[in-house]
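User: Let's play a game. I give you a shape written as tokens, and you guess the letters that built it. Ready? Here's round one.
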């Protein structure tokens, strides 16, 4: 269980690094520890507030066939930006939404490759 949590945390930190590299409006300062801190904080925000927010917006997520989930993820990124000075997002509409999309894709690809390799080890 702890191993799975650490792997997920590392995958999210690498996904933040890739997202900040690909998207010029999102910056993470503080080096490696900045990525580790931002990914831990985003994981906590996503687990607690993200769950509540997704339950409250479930009808809208269903109505838009899941596209509103991108807006929810962008709001969670903005909240993480507000909570820490290591993460900086330039603007909500374009930067946060593109960051939510890129972060989701990076996390999915990394989780499929690293998670599968970790389960087989």
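Assistant: Ready! My guess for every position:
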């Amino acid at each position: 269980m702890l191993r799975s949590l650490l792997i997920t945390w590392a995958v999210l930190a690498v996904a933040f690094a890739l997202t900040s590299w690909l998207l010029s409006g999102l910056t993470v300062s503080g080096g490696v520890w900045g990525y580790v801190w931002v990914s831990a904080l985003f994981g906590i925000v996503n687990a607690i507030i993200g769950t509540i927010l997704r339950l409250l917006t479930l009808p809208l997520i269903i109505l838009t066939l899941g596209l509103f989930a991108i807006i929810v993820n962008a709001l969670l990124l903005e909240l993480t930006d507000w909570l820490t000075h290591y993460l900086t997002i330039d603007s909500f509409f374009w930067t946060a939404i593109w960051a939510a999309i890129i972060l989701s894709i990076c996390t999915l690809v990394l989780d499929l490759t690293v998670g599968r390799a970790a389960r087989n080890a």
